[in-house]
Amino acid sequence: MTMVDWRNRGHPAYWAFLVHRVSGLALALFLPLHFIALAQALNGVDALNTFLAWTRAPWVTASEIAIVLALGAHLTGGLRLLLVEFFGWSRGVQQALIAVAAGIALACALLFALNVNAQPVADPGRPLLRL
Amino acid sequence: MSARTETWTWLAQRASAAVLAICVVVHLAMMIGAVRGGLSAADILGRTRGSAAWALFYGLFVVAVSIHAPLGLRTIASEWLGWRGRGADAACAMIALSLLALGLLAVGAVTL
Question: How distant, in Å, are the alpha carbons of A83, A87, A112, B56, B58 from that of A91?
Answer without folding.
Answer: 11, 11, 33, 39, 36
